[in-house]
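Quiz preparation item.
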C-alpha cells in the first residue's frame, strides 16, 4: 500500500520551492472564477468546480488524465502539488476532482490525502 498526497497552494502566499512535492502542476492557464460572483467561495464548492472545468476548455480534464497516468505508474508514496495564484479556486478544484476520480479508479488500499494550504487565507 502507498499514499497519494495531493496539495493545492497559491503563489501569492508561498513560493513553489517551499512546497515539498515530487511533481508540480500549474493551474494558471485554467479559467479563474476570482473575478466573478464566486470570489468568496472556494474550490471545495461544486459550483466553483463546475465553472472551472466548464470554462477551461477541457484543459483541466487533460491535466487530470496526465496526473492519473503518472500516479498509476507509482509503487511508492507520491506527492503532487497544484498551484494557482490565490490557491483557493483553480488548484483546489483540480485536486478535489482528481481525488474523486482516483477514488473511483484505483486500488482502494491506496490512501489519498488532500491538503489545501491556502483554503482559509484571504485573497
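Solution:
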Amino acid at each position: 500500500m502507498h499514499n497519494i498526497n495531493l496539495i493545492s497552494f497559491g503563489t501569492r502566499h508561498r513560493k513553489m520551492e517551499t512546497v515539498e512535492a515530487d511533481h508540480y502542476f500549474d493551474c494558471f492557464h485554467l479559467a479563474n472564477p476570482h473575478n466573478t460572483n464566486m470570489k468568496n467561495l472556494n474550490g471545495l464548492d461544486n459550483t466553483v468546480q463546475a465553472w472551472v472545468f466548464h470554462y477551461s476548455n477541457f484543459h483541466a480534464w487533460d491535466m487530470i488524465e496526465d496526473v492519473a497516468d503518472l500516479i498509476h505508474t507509482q509503487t511508492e508514496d507520491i506527492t503532487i502539488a497544484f498551484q494557482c495564484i490565490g490557491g483557493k479556486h483553480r488548484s483546489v478544484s483540480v485536486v478535489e476532482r482528481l481525488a474523486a476520480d482516483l477514488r473511483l479508479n484505483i486500488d482502494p488500499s491506496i490512501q489519498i490525502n488532500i491538503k489545501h494550504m491556502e483554503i482559509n487565507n484571504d485573497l
